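Bumping with the actual sequence this time:
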Amino acid sequence: MKYAKKGWIALIALCILVLGNTMTLKASVKEQKPAYTSKGLEYYVQADKKSVAVKIQNKKETVKIPESVKIRGKKYMVTEIKCTAIPHDTLVLGKKANIARDDKEYFKNTKTKTITIPKTVKKIETGAFSYYTKLTKVTVAKGNKNYKSTSQGIFSKNGKVLIYAVPGSGTYKVKAGVVKIAPRAFVGTKYSKVILPESCNEIGTRAFFKCKNLKKIQGGSLCICGDYAFFGTKVKGVDKYGTMLFAI
């Protein structure tokens, strides 16, 4: 009986792979609840019990993230910015579904126009500002040891990684010295052309994911391209998974 049951499971799995049809299997995903909410910001206590991560709600045009916050009388340092996303509550099977599907469910922020990030922030979660449709300016405090900002967006402190590109249209010229475009850096933007410096040799996973207006990537000395980097764009020379292959 035990072997017969295993046989049926194997047969069902084989049928799914052969047919390649889309199937969804429900799974429970529990989203962590914030410990405190104030001024359009949600705070989540970290494992060290001394710091918090912050998530920006879709409520205010101007957001200034504080260096610290008091929750039930205790002071916590703000060290991380979380993305407005949760894992999907369904598992999709089938090749077509896997190609088109994102790994998280991101929610649009249609309110926030400017964000100020304090010097205490050590980590900005991948995709933290994806689908912020109205965002025009992000300012990182000068004392921050991990990140810095320009009118173009957010960069690593040494200027070698473009973490996040401020939304816009037309042509975006990545500043000289950048060697890597971080995962999801351009998601939600409407640029039609991106010019890379010769120093740039890597594009991260889903860097331009579903940037529907993007038609051309110019420049760079690329040799590494992450999965789904150009999925959903109009850029030529990419495979069906949105990955471009470069010679080293």
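The tokens above came from a reply further down the thread. Confidence is low (pLDDT under 50) at residues 16-22.
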